Each structure stands twice: as structure tokens, then as C-alpha cells.
UniProtKB/TrEMBL annotation, chains A, B:
All copies of domain FAD-binding PCMH-type, residue ranges: 38-217
SUPFAM superfamilies listed in its UniProt record: FAD-binding/transporter-associated domain-like, FAD-linked oxidases, C-terminal domain
Keywords associated with the record: FAD, Flavoprotein, Oxidoreductase
Source organism of the structure: Flavobacterium ponti
Cofactor(s) needed: FAD
Protein name: FAD-binding oxidoreductase
Gene3D superfamilies reported for this sequence: 3.30.465.10, 3.30.70.2190, 3.30.70.2740, Uridine Diphospho-n-acetylenolpyruvylglucosamine Reductase, domain 2, Vanillyl-alcohol Oxidase, Chain A, domain 4
Leader sequence segment: none
PROSITE patterns: FAD_PCMH
């Protein structure tokens, strides 16, 4: 799609000459996120200053049927920010302020392009916590977190992004600017458009301000790394810990390969892994009372000692804790650097994890692919990385998708679903029929049309190709 | 609306002769809930056995444009279950089973007509908690809680109904039965229809099964009753307690009148109230470690001692705790038994409570009405009871609604909204323009049409009269 001169001029008049780009380098730069090796450059990149300018841009786009794809930090793993139908790449980067930390009401109002970790650290200075911490928190933005309903390692205790979003300022495709709700903890006033917007992957509106709930920060935590001789026993232990009455603040699962590859990839992190160890659980409890945390850690030890484990590592300094977390957060990138791969973001009720893991391995054998699994086992969210390795392109493009389909079918059969925290975006959309009936998908598409009659906003996402 | 013979026969064939009623007594019985003194009998009462029958009923209703109002326990305070356009009153009472307590995944699957307290007590036997406890928990049903997104006294720490709903089985107005999501803690798979359905007050679909998240139950709690000489200082203390880093499990505010009327109304509850005491805070902390709770209670004492308070009552036995909670839960009924009244369910960010309370009293003086305020101050949710007393009918019907409008305008100006936990239903709908622009309301109405093109489901609710 080539941009016509008259439209270029209209857009330039809105954002100003310094914030409109059509050169190839810029378009390529904004044409990819972290999803496999896809590149879909937009026809033009715009960097608006505020909601008002975004409103004007959407009015033009709506009049001339130009696709608009909101672009955040481009750390997404489902291709939500890829400009698959070209058009306008709408970079949110200039909306990057923490507008107000409201200590009196434990809330923060923030623009979308604030790095999640920066937000977390800034509110922590006031002893407040925004506890949602995606593994990419050092580079992802809060706006993208809201758009994809991001989770992270602490979701099992603290919930996901949606559980903290109280209110959103949104620019609708017709240019109107609304607040979806109110800045209150309770709200039974009309339909919950706030929660409809969270996780809608930029297809219903452009988020320009976010009001988040904060909680008092916990002061202490204890971190354990437990090596298991059998992966499925590690998965079984996850559910057993909860049944012992403990809600850990993190409970992460890593297969042996994930850990070994990461140690090769990340400097300064090293954990001795004995022969025959198949998986590790990284377990954290947090709170304000160290003596209670030690009691809880001991209870956890009692639970995991029912399984075949090796010696448990207690992280006994902040440095060691940081190193372990750094390692865990780097798994995704380590896998990526190792081989071409596809990542699926499966989620099931947590007790079903062993069944899911066994099923994935069996499917891998059937279709001849290797997989590396890791993720937020405490909430049943397993990232399945399917490795190309030395598979032929033929096999990779024809056979592997059949295996992925079987993995998702298994996930849904276990009362889980396709994506726990990455979103459907571009790369999972053609599996949506596994989770939803045709009429259910049509219901979602009708909601899409209510917001975006001309289908300009982030087209080519969420809905299967044949459906739109 | 008279029911035609052919339609009666169609409906009778679906539910069976024992479960269709057109006699006046039954219609009147199902024609009211707890909202003021409204009675709107349906033309026919149906008591279907399951989702399949409800699906057949909705197909008939959709074909012949017959209004259908889902009816729960009829404990609602916004008129959500009133059959304001007659038609079918769809009593959910036979869908009353706890289907499965899934201890392995900390979930429960339940039908809508289970009493909330029964659900809570049943899962507690397994040391699990469903922590949402509306004041009417002894009689309300979980289905109505989901439909209205009910809150209650523990919402400040544990959240409201929406925070526990993982998945819903819903019969759509066209008769189709869908599950809205998956039984997982994380879900980024398409639009969040689960959360759109929660709080939609029976206008988008009929909820027939509910999957709720459970949490490990806390074993201990401490309860304090703090008398304040000034109501606004009681409100100020609410925010100060949170700022001291404590998240109480309940933080209830009661004006003097609320407490005095309740003591007259409820047997076996008596608290000495000194002259000049204007309000009380009922404060609870809970957890698993009694020594920690005592530390937190002491911190709370330090905070409230900064205000003009009288002697604090520590509830030192289960009996005393139960008596205090019984008293608190009876305030609504006590006010109701005292006079004709209107109840508004205002909610603001919690720090704004003193401003809200002062504003309400000033508006009362302006329009000449008395109000009694109480509620879940910890989450900024104040129930405003406007007392008819000896006001003339003329004043009650003409002037008081102007005052209510001003109260809601104040609420919205303070970044709050109309309803925290009761829903909009029938009695608040004509104030919706205060919270939402015309086009915002139109957006909600368009969503309504996506689900319910013929507008059969619970018509006359949520949307202002002129809008529909």
C-alpha cells in the first residue's frame, strides 16, 4: 500500500514534519517485534504527541480506510504490533510519562510508553507495588502489557495486568476519546468496557492513559531452586504446594535444556546441574515477616521432598536472587539465539501440567520435532518452544503446524486455552477455531465491528484468516 | 402483555406443566426484589431445569419478541430482576447445584441458584475460600452476584465477584450455549467475554454455570470497632490505614443513625454509643499467624489514635465477632424497616470519602432530605440511604431525584461512579448520562444489540429511558 500525497499531507499536518517517516530504514525498524523472524513494515510511521493527535490520525484513517497498527516496545511474542496490512504504524513512544502516583488512593496514572520495570521501580520508591512483572519487564511497555493482558512470574499470587487496570483513556477508531470506567476498586456501572479493552490487542481502540491499582509493597522474599529428576514430578509438585495452603509469589518451571542453553547465553549465571536432572522449579514466597517466610519455605521443602529431587539451592543474598531471576528471564532469548523456533503460550488449570507436558513430548515424537518447555507453572502457563534445529523447511512449514494444532487441541481438552499471556496476535489466529465455535468467533467479530466498523485498527489479528 | 395460548403451550412443552405459572400469586411473588417497594409481575413464571431448556425458551422468546427477565434470589437493590416489561420471568431456582469443588486446581463449578453463604461454607470445609461476601450472602445467589458484579465487605483486600470468575456457561438470546473463556488463571485468547458478561445484569445472556477461582482459607482474624467523634475523620482514617502499609480484610463505615436503627431492629446486638459519637469504623485484619495480626491491629490503633476517637472495642470471642458482623449486615434492612427510602450505591477513590460525605450532607440540606450513610469505606463504596420520613410525596418524587442527581454528579467529579456493587438495573438507569457521554452509551447499546438483536433479554434496564 503506497501512501498517497494528499493523505501524507493530512497526516503530516497532524503530527508535524519531525514525526512522520516513510524512509525504508525507519519502516523496517518499526516493522518487527520479537515474534519469530517476521518483518512487516508499515507504509508510514507516525509518532503522535498525545491522544488529541491520535484522534485526528484515526479520523483520517477511518475516512480513507487506512490500516492503523499501534506499536509499543515491539517486545511482543504473538505479532500484535506487526503491520501485516501495511498502512500507518502508530508508534506510541512519545506518550511516555508517569502522570501521577496517587499515594492517597494507591493508584498510578500512566501513559502507555512507560517501561514496565521503570513504572515498578518508581512506585516502589513510595513503598507501593505494581506487582505484574512480565519477563520482558526491562524493555516492554505498560501499554503493550494492557493490550495483550500480560502476565509474568508473579501472576499466581498477584494476578495479571487486567487485575490492576481500573480505568483507561482510549481513542476509538472514529476519533472519539473516552474513559472506559472510573478510578474505583468497585464498579457495577454499565458494561465493563475496561476489561473488554484489556487484552484486545489494539483492535478496538488506542490506549492513551492507564489508571492502575497499586498495593503496599512486601518487604521480604525467599527464593529456592529445586532440581527434579523427573519433569512430570516437578509439574505435580506445583499443584501440591498450593494444596499445602501456600500461595508462592512465583513458581517457575524450567526444563533442563532451557537452563543449559540459558547458562551458555547469559554471562555470570551458573548453576551446577547434575546428570539425570530433568527440570527445575524456581520458587519464591514473599511477605513482610521474614520468620513467616522461613516457615513457609520449610513447608515447601516438606512438599517437594515427596518427589525425587536433588539438593535445594536457597538463594542467600540479593545478588544470588538477582542472578537466578536474570537467568529465568533470559530463557526466552536464549532459546531464540539457539535456533529458529516457534513459541506457543499454552495455559491449563495447574494440576493438568504433567498431562500437558507429557502430551507435548508425545506429539513432538509423532511429528519429529524437539521442544523446550518452561514457564509460569504456578498458574498453569507453559511456554512451549518448538525448535527447528535441522528440520527441513518442508517439514517445518507443513508438518510442525499440524503438531502445534494437536498441542492446542490437547490444551483445550484439558480445559485450558491457546494463550495465557502473549495474546493471539498474528501467529496464533489460525488456531482460534480450536478454542471457539464459529458463532462464538462471530460474536467477537461483531463486537469488533461495533468499535471499528471500517476495520482499520490492527487488521489481520486475532481472527482466523477465513473469518474476516 | 397477555400470554397467547400458542406461546403458553410452546413454553409448557419445554419446562413441563409443573414448572409454568400464570396465577397472580406466583406472578406477584416473582414480581419484586428488595428494591424499594417496586412490584412488576411477569406474564408467566418459568422454572427451567437446565441450560438446554433455557435455550429452548430463549428461542421461542426471540422468535415472538417476548421479554425475558432472569430472576435470582430477588435480593437485588437496583431492580435488576424486576420484570418491568412483563413477559417471561425466568426463575433460575432449579439450577442450584455445586457441581464440582476442584481441590487440585482451587476452583469450583457452580450453578447460579446456590446461596452465596452456602457456597462459601461448603468450600471452607476443604480449607478453601471464596472470599466475596455481600451483606446479603445468607440469601443472595451466586448467579445474581455474577450478574451484578457484587462486592461486599472483603472486597478491599480480596476483590469483587469479577475477580473470581474464570469462565461462564451462558445461554445467548438466540438459544446458543457457549462457554465464555477457559478454566485458567491467565487468559489472553480473544476478547474477554467472561468479564463483559460479569455485571451485565442479565441483559446479554443467561448464566447457567460459573467457574470460580478459590484461594487457601485464612485461619485467623482480629476485629475492632472504633467510635469517632467526627464522621469525616472516620473517613479520613480509612485512607490513612492503607497508607500505613496495612491492607485490612474489612473496613466498614457506619453513621450513628445506621447503628442506632440497627440495634433497635436486630435482637441480641448492643454497643454502647456515647453522646457526640458520629460514626464507627469496623476494622478486620485476617491471616494465618495470630501474632502478626496483633502487630497489624496495633499499627491500626496507632493510626486511628491520630483522630478524635473514643474507646476501641476489640471483639474477643467468635460470638462477639459474629454479633458485630450480624449488626453490620443488618443495617440495610434496618434502614428499610424504618422508613420508605431510596438507596444509592456511590463509589469513589477511597481518599475522596470525606468530600463525598460532606457533599451528600450539604445536598441533603439543600433539598431538605435526611440521609443515612454506611458501607464499605475501605474501597470507597458508600451506601447512601435517603429517608422519606415525613417528606411530602410531591417533594419525594420531584425534588429528591434532583438531589440524587447532584450526589451522582459529585461522585463522578470525584472520579468515582454511580454503582460500586448493586448495579444500575431499573432505578439508576436515568442517571447514566452523568457517568457516560451519549456516544459512550451508544457503544454499550451496540454491544447489547450484538448479543440480543431483538432486545428480549431483561429490557428496561441499564440504559436511560430515552436511549432505548
Amino acid at each position: 500500500m503506497e501512501l498517497k500525497k494528499n493523505i501524507y499531507d493530512l497526516l503530516k499536518n497532524i503530527v508535524g514534519e519531525s514525526y512522520i517517516f516513510t524512509d525504508e530504514e525507519t519502516r523496517n525498524h518499526y516493522g518487527h517485534d520479537e515474534t519469530e523472524d517476521y518483518v512487516f513494515p508499515p507504509s508510514v510511521v507516525l509518532k503522535p504527541a498525545n491522544a488529541k493527535e491520535i484522534s485526528e490520525i484515526l479520523k483520517v484513517a477511518n475516512e480513507f480506510y487506512i490500516p492503523v497498527t499501534p506499536i509499543g516496545a515491539r517486545t511482543g511474542l504473538s505479532g500484535g504490533a506487526l503491520c501485516v496490512q501495511k498502512g500507518i504504524g502508530l508508534s506510541m513512544e512519545r506518550l511516555n510519562k508517569i502522570i501521577e502516583i496517587d499515594e492517597k488512593n494507591l493508584q498510578v496514572t500512566v501513559e502507555p510508553a512507560v517501561i514496565t520495570q521503570v513504572l515498578r521501580e518508581t512506585v516502589l520508591e513510595k513503598n507501593l507495588s505494581y506487582p505484574v512483572d512480565p519477563s520482558s519487564q526491562g524493555s516492554c511497555w505498560i501499554g503493550g502489557n494492557v493490550a495483550e493482558n500480560a502476565g509474568g512470574a508473579r501472576a499466581l499470587k498477584y494476578g495479571v495486568t487486567k487485575d490492576y487496570v481500573l480505568n483507561l483513556e482510549v481513542v476509538l477508531p472514529n476519533g472519539e476519546i473516552i474513559w472506559t470506567g472510573a478510578n474505583t476498586l468497585k464498579n457495577s456501572t454499565g458494561y465493563n468496557l475496561t476489561q473488554l479493552m484489556v487484552g484486545s490487542e489494539g483492535t478496538l481502540g488506542v490506549i492513551t492513559k492507564i489508571v492502575l491499582k497499586l498495593i503496599p509493597a512486601n518487604k521480604h522474599n525467599v527464593l529456592l531452586l529445586v532440581p527434579f529428576y523427573k519433569s512430570t514430578q516437578a509439574c505435580e509438585a506445583v499443584s501440591a504446594i498450593f494444596r499445602a495452603g501456600i500461595v508462592p509469589s512465583a513458581l517457575e518451571f524450567m526444563e533442563r535444556d532451557a537452563l543449559e542453553w540459558t547458562m551458555r547465553y547469559v554471562d555470570g549465571v551458573s548453576v551446577p546441574i547434575k546428570d539425570k536432572i530433568q527440570a527445575h522449579l524456581l520458587i519464591e514466597v514473599d511477605g513482610n515477616y521474614p520468620e513467616i517466610l522461613m516457615q513457609e519455605a520449610e513447608k515447601i521443602l516438606e512438599v517437594v521432598e515427596n518427589y525425587e529431587i536433588d539438593e535445594v539451592l536457597f538463594a542467600d543474598s540479593e545478588e544470588q536472587k538477582n542472578a537466578l531471576w536474570k537467568m529465568r528471564r533470559a530463557v526466552g532469548e536464549a532459546v531464540k539465539s539457539n535456533s529458529i523456533y516457534k513459541e506457543e503460550d499454552t495455559v491449563v488449570p495447574r494440576y493438568e501440567l504433567p498431562a500437558l507436558l507429557n502430551g507435548i513430548k508425545a506429539i513432538g515424537i509423532k511429528y519429529g520435532f524437539q521442544s523446550v518447555c518452561y514457564g509460569h507453572a504456578g498458574d498453569g502457563n507453559l511456554h512451549v518452544n518448538i525448535i527447528k534445529g535441522d528440520l527441513s523447511d518442508e517439514k517445518w512449514n507443513k508438518e510442525v503446524p499440524k503438531g502445534i494444532r494437536e498441542i492446542f487441541e490437547l490444551t483445550v481438552a484439558l480445559k485450558g486455552t491457546l494463550s495465557g499471556e502473549h495474546g493471539i496476535g498474528y501467529v496464533q489466529k489460525n488456531y482460534m477455531d480450536i478454542a471457539f465455535s464459529k458463532s462464538h468467533l462471530e460474536l467477537m467479530e461483531s463486537i469488533k465491528r461495533v468499535f471499528d466498523a471500517n476495520h482499520i485498527l490492527n487488521p489481520g489479528k486475532i481472527f482466523p484468516d477465513e473469518e474476516v
